[in-house]
């Protein structure tokens, strides 16, 4: 894993900016956050993103600065800070005392949620609809109190489950954890499993479809505090470190594929923001596969990543594709994407590039 390792940091879970003259740290947009997490996991320190009015934002993790480029040679600088996946805070000297805007103030609408799904499945997801989730005043007050208690390690994450469970969670409460959908040997404890913002394919993979082939996932905001790393197959279901404020765990502290929230915390530390509906169906209906790749892809890493998505009943088919000579990259990609879906395959490729 090639995480940035700046000042001992892992991949940033939450990135904040402090505008010149301001006294409040605010979150970067979710679409930008996903790209910042990706480039950090690749070991890069700089990211440049265009703005609607022709300007550019340049994020420089090494200098803890975000530049606002107005034109050639003209720019202004804003301070940059972040919390990494382990919950550690990284602020520029002399800036850590300033207040961080409550995460509730930063909204994510259904259009942004759909954009993230499409971007991080390389445009292959067949999205059929999306809607914003609205929580009551009591639920939001409880979440605000929890965020204040557990600190600023707030994350955006995807939750997948059968359609009824997802829809009920979006409107009222999470009924039960979804670890059993991943499987006892692959789940990281007996808790609610959510995938990071840029990995919607993982939660889409465990989201069951209804009789029409439609499935759904929730984009959520979660508070984790200081999570611990738990190995696959663990039976842990509670925080075993009473001296630490933690609502759950991760599979890997520097660069997780799964966030875990313990059952006792799932309805106070997780707030659904948007529900996204999509079709789970074979890749062939989506058009031809890309026949070449501009980057080197480690096939063994891809194999391990795809195993995270598949139910146990299909692992034998996957091993058969990897172990056999399919003739060329097109045939291999077609066979595997037929098995798991093109959106799942593309998501797994993006994740593999970070490993």
State the main characteristics.
16 strands; eight-stranded mixed β-sheet; alpha+beta; about 350 residues; Signal recognition particle alu RNA binding heterodimer, srp9/1
Task: Describe the fold and architecture.
This protein is an alpha+beta fold. The chain is built from ten helices and 16 strands. Strands 1, 2, 3, 4, 5, 6, 7 and 8 form an eight-stranded mixed β-sheet that branches. The chain has an eight-stranded mixed β-sheet with strand order 9-16-12-10-11-15-14-13, sandwiched between helices. A hairpin with a 4-residue loop joins strand 6 (74-84) and strand 7 (89-90). Helix 8 packs antiparallel against helix 9 (329-340) and helix 9 packs across helix 10 (342-353). The N and C termini lie close together (5 Å). The model is unreliable at 282-295 (pLDDT under 50).
């Amino acid at each position: 894993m090639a995480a940035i390792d700046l000042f001992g940091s892992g991949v940033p879970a939450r990135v904040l900016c402090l505008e010149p003259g301001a006294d409040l740290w605010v979150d970067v947009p979710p679409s930008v956050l996903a790209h910042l997490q990706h480039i950090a996991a690749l070991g890069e320190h700089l990211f440049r993103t265009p703005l609607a009015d022709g300007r550019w934002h340049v994020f420089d993790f090494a200098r803890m600065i975000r530049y606002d480029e107005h034109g050639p040679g003209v720019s202004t600088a804003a301070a940059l800070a972040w919390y990494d996946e382990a919950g550690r805070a990284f602020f520029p000297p002399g800036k850590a005392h300033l207040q961080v805007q409550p995460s509730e103030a930063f909204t994510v609408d259904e259009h942004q949620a759909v954009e993230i799904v499409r971007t991080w499945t390389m445009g292959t997801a067949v999205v059929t609809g999306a809607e914003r989730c609205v929580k009551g005043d009591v639920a939001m007050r409880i979440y605000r109190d929890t965020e204040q208690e557990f600190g600023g390690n707030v994350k955006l994450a995807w939750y997948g489950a059968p359609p009824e469970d997802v829809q009920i969670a979006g409107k009222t409460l999470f009924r039960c954890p979804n670890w059993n959908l991943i499987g006892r040997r692959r789940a990281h404890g007996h808790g609610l499993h959510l995938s990071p913002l840029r990995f919607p394919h993982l939660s889409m993979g465990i989201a069951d479809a209804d009789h029409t082939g439609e499935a759904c996932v929730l984009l959520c905001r979660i508070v984790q505090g200081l999570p611990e790393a738990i190995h696959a197959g663990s039976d842990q279901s509670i925080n075993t470190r009473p001296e630490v404020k933690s609502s759950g765990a991760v599979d890997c502290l520097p660069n997780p594929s799964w966030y875990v929230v313990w059952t006792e915390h799932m309805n106070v530390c997780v707030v659904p923001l948007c529900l996204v509906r999509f079709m789970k169906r074979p890749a062939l209906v989506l058009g031809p596969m890309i026949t070449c790749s501009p980057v080197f892809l480690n096939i063994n890493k891809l194999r391990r990543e795809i195993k995270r998505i598949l139910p146990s009943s299909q692992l034998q088919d996957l091993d058969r594709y990897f172990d056999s000579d399919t003739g060329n990259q097109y045939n291999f990609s077609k066979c595997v994407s037929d098995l798991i879906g093109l959106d799942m395959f593309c998501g797994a490729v993006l994740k593999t590039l970070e490993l």
